[in-house]
Amino acid sequence: MPEPTDAPGAAAAGAGPPPVPLDVEEHLTWLAAERGRSSNTLSAYRRDLRAYWAWLAQRGLGLDDVTGSDLDAYVAALRDRGLAPASVSRAMVAVRSLHRFRAEEGMAATDPGAEVETPRVPAGLPKALTEEEVGRLLDRVVGDDAVARRDRALLELLYGTGARISEACALSLGDVDLDAGLARLFGKGSKERVVPLGRHARAALVAWLDDAGRGAMAPERWARRGDAEAVFLNQRGGRLGRQGAWSVVRRHGDAAGLAGRLTPHVLRHSCATHMLDHGADVRAVQELLGHASISTTQVYTLVSTDRLFAVYDAAHPRARATRK
Question: Is 261 labeled as catalytic in the residue annotation?
Answer without folding.
Answer: no
